[in-house]
Write a structure and sequence with these properties.
Length: about 140
């Protein structure tokens, strides 16, 4: 499940996988095939997945946004006119002394795909929403 490689990092010895998302993803993520695959992934690894959403205008807490900021400082106004140039700059940056994993995906992202009502109902039974933060903190329980 390659799509999760950039969304999740987890410790095999932990009982829980933590996934952090920007708020834009919150409203519809679980109603798409990605939500279905996340439930399958939770079952495959035998661990629950805790989805935490960042509130609007709080990008300073989002690790992906921090990564973009570091990359922007790294290339510092360089002319990024070719894909190869962009990839080379991205591969040469470091954060805490470590380089990133860089991969150019040429897949076309299909928009507007959602699950049927019946398929989503099956997923919804696996979700546990935090009563204090129901829109921001969702647990996908594994079987």
């Amino acid at each position: 499940m390659i799509f999760l490689s950039c969304l999740l990092s987890y410790d095999y010895y932990s009982h829980l996988v933590l996934a952090q998302f920007a708020i834009a993803v919150n409203q519809r993520l679980l109603t798409t095939p990605i939500g279905e695959r996340m439930v399958e992934f939770a079952d495959q690894i035998g661990k629950s997945i805790q989805l935490l959403y960042f509130p609007p205008y709080h990008s300073k807490y989002n690790p992906i946004e921090r990564c973009w900021g570091i990359l922007e400082q790294h290339w510092n106004g360089a002319l990024l006119s070719h894909v190869e140039t962009m990839l080379a700059w991205a591969e040469s940056m470091t954060r805490i002394g470590k380089p990133p994993l860089v991969h150019l995906s040429q897949e076309i992202y299909q928009k507007g795909i959602s699950l049927t009502k019946k398929a989503f109902e099956a997923i919804e039974t696996r979700l546990l929403r935090n009563p204090c933060l129901p829109k921001w903190d969702i647990l996908i329980r594994h079987c």
